[in-house]
Amino acid sequence: MGDVAAIEDLYRTQYRRFLRLAIAVVGSEEAAADAVQEAFARALRERHALREGSLGAWVWRVVLNAAIDQTRRAAREVPADPPEAAAGEPEDLRELRRAVAALPDRQRHTLFLRHYADLSYDEIAEVLGVARGTVAATLHQAHKALRKEAVA
Amino acid sequence: VSVDELLDRLVPEPTAFGDWDDVLGRARISKRPQRLLVAAALALLVIAFFVSPAFGLLRDLIGRTDVTFSHSQPAPTRVQREFFDLSRRGPKGLSPQAIASQTRVVGRFAGRDVYVAPTRQGGLCWQVERFMGGCDTERPSTPLSLGTSVMVRKGERARVVVGVVFARRAQRVVAEYADGAREPIRFLWLSKPVDAGIFWFTVPPEHRTTASRFLGVAARDGSGKLLARQWLDGTAYPPIAPHPRPLPKPRPTPAPTTPVQRGSANGVTVVVGANGVAEFHTSDPKLRRSAWGCFQFMQYHRVVPFGANFGPHGSRIELWGLTPPVDGCEVERGNGHVWPDPQGYHAAAEIAFTPRARRYFADRAAARELSLFVHWFRRHDHVPTTGITVAAHGDTTTYSVRSRTGKVFHVTLQGRKVVGDNLGPFKGQF
Q1: Cβ contacts (< 8 Å) between B6 and chain A: which residues?
Q2: Which of A10, B28, B31, B139 has the fewest CB atoms nearer than 10 Å to its CB?
Q3: What is the ipTM of this complex?
Q4: DSSP letters spanning A82-130
């Protein structure tokens, strides 16, 4: 069962990692910050529901889900050409943004958890409820697709 | 360009801070009862403090504020680089080994930020922004360490004292004066990895006479037991006279005398005279603002270059402490080096007068590249190894760079832990 102090400690020590993950999912820092705040509030309200597993993985899952919910509400997740990126963004970044948006959800979220949240394969496996090997294979596929579409 | 680099550019690391109170509000977890209690307790304390003489001792008991170091605001990159350079430039054994990436802002003093970084040996480095700084590389045997300087403000100069307390039981820090006055000093106790207290204050005007001068600082525990006392030299600084005598004009630096050493590189020429004067010339205005210096190899535990007297403005400098002939001179860019460094790992101009200096420049550049690479690598997951040779052996990986002298520098990592290297005196801060 998670307690308030442990959740607060996660928030204070790793806020920027949570925020960066949310920015990657949502696409704007303002909406991402709101998603992180809402996620931690939800984590506090539902902390008694955590019976097993690590608190960290559970909170990461809550933040990821909150960011996805936020995106669904805005009906756009990693838009191909978000407004702030449209003007003056280099071509290679635009290509990458499109390629990331085209990835299947599972690949995209695994990639974000690895790259922006800086989680290990085991931690990602726990967050997403899949096997470690699945994480490795999914990341490989995501990187392969991005190299093909964005870096080639 | 790799996918990882592009991903980094796509979503750069944010710099925002979170608002925990907002989270509590959204979760409808109220802190009000606790706040009310704290407010009531504070009100009682304030009343006791000002009204009742019996509570006079309370002034001493509220001197310590515990701060969670990791929650403090990270220092700007510029400051982290200064702490990094501080450790990288020093010879082995003399380097403070500050963990630059953990540099934090812990407070403000006279309109300047106060920065603190832990060191690898359990000490700390501190800096009052662009004013003064110091390091206790290890936890010293005396639990109190003082630094002092003179600050000129509004035409008056005042002694500034910055101190570090290593005694964990310390609850009070008190400034002591020659007239018997005692003044409690507020101090911050910074949690691990610093695990030490820091304080700063200006000696007040009424203690600038000989009879009332500042003597030192004492640290005491909660029961008043003396843990440490540190005296300064007892100098009192009276106010500056309204019309001080003009300072004598500085003696112009003489020209280099024969026999001279002459050399040039990258648009910089230098003439070093037998009288210990070096004259630099360059047409590049950027280099005029750089650090200039010459060095001589000396035996101090191991051979290290010894630089002297950087003159950022003048082209002629006196090399105090060096007796020509020197081994070499150099002009180092003021902004330091990063990895990968598009401008390379050599100084902006390296002028070698001896084969040994030539080897030194080549080896230092190779070792610097590797050292900076390792520093970067340990903080980033995906780093291109351009120019670095990589060899995996079981669970360790060895990264190496070959110098132009043929010498191969290597660093071996197990995960992100450095388990071996041969960088020797070139080792910076990983």
Answers
A1: 92-93, 96, 146, 150-151
A2: B28
A3: 0.88
A4: -HHHHTT--HHHHHHHHHHHHS-HHHHHHHHHHHTS---HHHHHHHHT-
